[in-house]
Structures are given as structure tokens and as C-alpha cells.
Amino acid sequence: MRHYRYQILNVFTQDDFSGNPLCVFESSVDLDQNTMQKLAKQFNLSETVFLTPFKQEATSSNLQPVTIDYSMRIFTPSYELPFAGHPVIGSSVVASQLLNDKDEINFLCQSGIVTVNYDIDTNYWTLKTPDYPLSYEKLVPFELDNLKKLFNIDEFAGEPAYVNTGSEQLIVPLASKKLVDEVIININATDIWPTNKNGRKTAYLFSLDIDSNGALSIYSRFLFLSATDAAGEDPGTGSACANLGYWLFKNGFSSPINAKVTQGVKYGRTCNLSLQVSNDKEVQIFVGGSAIKVAEGRYFFK
């Protein structure tokens, strides 16, 4: 009987019951797109990843040769994503195990090459966002008004914008953790929720704090509307964290930027992420976190 091995991981945590769960299929050879989508719906997690051994040379944005270890495809229960951070971090743990504890993994996703490195001191895997054109698009006035109605927000703590460092999301700054936690989706107003270029309705809401030593801390939530128009929340979103990094850069935060990001507290599954932004000739964004395997198994096909 044909079967495929998979692992379940909690990402952005070292705890058994926190972080963002992820399913990773160790090899997707002979699985077509339709079957992958059905499997993602079956597992019904934020994302399910399908790895395929690659071992081919590619060229990075700086024209350097890179050996790709795995191609990866990332699916929510409803659609495929070009890039997502928590699947990359979790898949790094799986790939490292399969490659004899390799501490640098190169993935090829739809948005481009993603390189991930392991730091033994922090137990974090840190990804560099794909070689992808960065974009930043402000909302027009009527979209801002709609956003306030949708989330019952009186004021923003900066300009909301669509940001894309590999997967476009709406980034929404608020003045405090309390205001972030108080946001509730007005389910009767979801028709006015701005839609991104991928046709998704999402919002990454955050507040920031700078302590007396200049350390930057971010508190965030990621809200979305599913393909069935159900309101949801994702506990840990690496691609949105990367987009936040570019938002900070575009809004005057001096490079290098280093921040600790906490997400998923309100949801009940705390995630801890690191965020770095540098601007040495070009903007580079790095998102890090840990992950642990909590289950493994085989999926059988008749």
C-alpha cells in the first residue's frame, strides 16, 4: 500500500502545547497539486508542507550559485501559498534531520530561494526572505475608513499598508497591546475588508514598545477571513513578521533593526519570533524561531 511519511511540529516554540502547529510531508514525489490540497484540508492546520528532494544548482539574487536541498509547496486548507515563514522554519527541522543534522538548508518555494540557518546557542532557525521584489503600498482613504469599521478601531498608530516580502499582507499599527487584543472582526462588515493581490483578506495588527535600552519589542495578532468566509486567527506568522520588518524600514526605523516579536497570546498559543532588518547595499530581512516535533506518522493511500 502506497504511503507517505509526515511529521507534526509546533513552530515558534519549544513547548508541547504552544506555537503554531505544522504538518510536513517528508517527500511528495508522485503527489499532484489536487492531492496536496486535499491532504492540507484533511489535516486542517494553518499550513501543510510538501517537500521534494531537489539537489540542483540555482542562482541567487546576487548571482551566486546555491545548491537547493528541497523544493517546497505550502498549502492552507483552502489554497496554496507562494511563501510562508512558519512552514519554512518547521520544515528546516525536518530537512536537517533527513540531511544528517545539516545546519544550513536551502529551499525553493514559489517566491524564490529561501536560505535557513541554525544557531545552536539560541536553538533558532533563521530564514532570509526570498529573492523577491519588495513592495509597499499605502491604503487609500476609503480603505482606511473601512478598516476602522471592520475592526472597530478609532485611530491607527501609523499608516496601514500592504507589504510584500514574499507573501503580501496588510500591516496595521496600533498604539498598545490592549488595543491589539481588543480588536474583534465585525462579521457583518467583512465585505469591506480590503483584499490583497492574492485575493486574501488578512490583517497583521501590532503594537511596539522601545525600552530604556532601545530594545524593540513587538506584540501582534494575525486575523483572516477563510475561503468559506469564517473569521480566523493564526497564532504565528513568519511571512507577516517579515513584512512588518519592511514596514518598519519604510517608516523610518534605522537599520539595523532587531526586534523580539510575540504573537498568538490572545489565541492561547504563544509564539516567539526574532526579526532583523539590515540595509547593506540592499534591504535584507531575517525571521527566526525554534520548532519541535510532537508527532509523526504515515498517510496511506488505497
Question: What does this protein look like?
Answer:
The chain is an alpha+beta fold and 302 residues long. It has helices at residues 33-43, 85-98, 141-151, 177-182, 238-250; strands at residues 2-11, 20-25, 48-59, 65-75, 80-81, 104-109, 112-119, 124-128, 135-138, 161-164, 169-173, 201-210, 216-225, 231-234, 257-263, 271-280, 282-289, 291-301. It folds into two domains: 3-127 and 290-300, Diaminopimelate Epimerase, Chain A, domain 1; 135-288, Roll (Diaminopimelate Epimerase, Chain A, domain 1). Helix content is 18%, strand content 44%. It has an 18-stranded mixed sheet that branches. The radius of gyration is 19 Å and the shape is globular.
Summary tags:
302 residues; alpha+beta; Diaminopimelate Epimerase, Chain A, domain 1; 18-stranded mixed sheet; 5 helices; isomerase activity; Phenazine_PhzF-like; Phenazine biosynthesis protein PhzF family
CATH architecture of the largest domain: Roll
Helix content: 10-25%
Which stretches are low in confidence, meaning pLDDT under 50 for 5 or more residues running? none
CATH class of the largest domain: Alpha Beta
Strand-pairing-aware structural class: alpha+beta
Largest sheet: 18 strands, mixed
